[in-house]
């Protein structure tokens, strides 16, 4: 389980190696994404709080990167943070997320990105629930839910 100290270490000393890399030109990303998805994931934008489609969804499944389909978060670690963005306590794998220090807007935060394609996802904060104490605050537009299929017979 990742801790805040490990997150800070990744942001300062370097990130874990991803399983694979996906790189595309700006034109290729624009052709694959909606304008809002492009603005958020490729230009480091943010959606308005409580506006994202994934804020109130709690179906079982995985949340994958909208750009490269890399699994990022599992629905079992999603929680209601009251912030207006989908929130998670841990990534699905340690090397799924890339961390960078973000000093935009006069504050110091830790930006989180897809470690496979560098898509901007949101930020991580040390004010989440136990046991990790982490809150990954993620834009809905940067992910897609791959719902778990249940066998009902």
UniProtKB/TrEMBL annotation:
Enzyme nomenclature, EC number: 1.8.4.12
Reaction(s) this enzyme catalyzes, per UniProt: L-methionyl-[protein] + [thioredoxin]-disulfide + H2O = L-methionyl-(R)-S-oxide-[protein] + [thioredoxin]-dithiol
Class of the enzyme per the UniProt entry, highest EC level: oxidoreductase
GO molecular function: peptide-methionine (R)-S-oxide reductase activity
SUPFAM superfamilies per UniProt: Mss4-like
Record has Metal-binding as a keyword: no
Listed InterPro entries: Met_Sox_Rdtase_MsrB, Met_Sox_Rdtase_MsrB_dom, Mss4-like_sf
Coiled-coil blocks: none
Domain MsrB: residue ranges: 26-148
A Pfam family this chain is assigned to: SelR
PROSITE patterns named in the record: MSRB
PANTHER family tied to this protein: METHIONINE SULFOXIDE REDUCTASE, METHIONINE-R-SULFOXIDE REDUCTASE B1
Protein name listed in UniProt: peptide-methionine (R)-S-oxide reductase
Organism: Flaviramulus multivorans
This protein's encoding gene: msrB
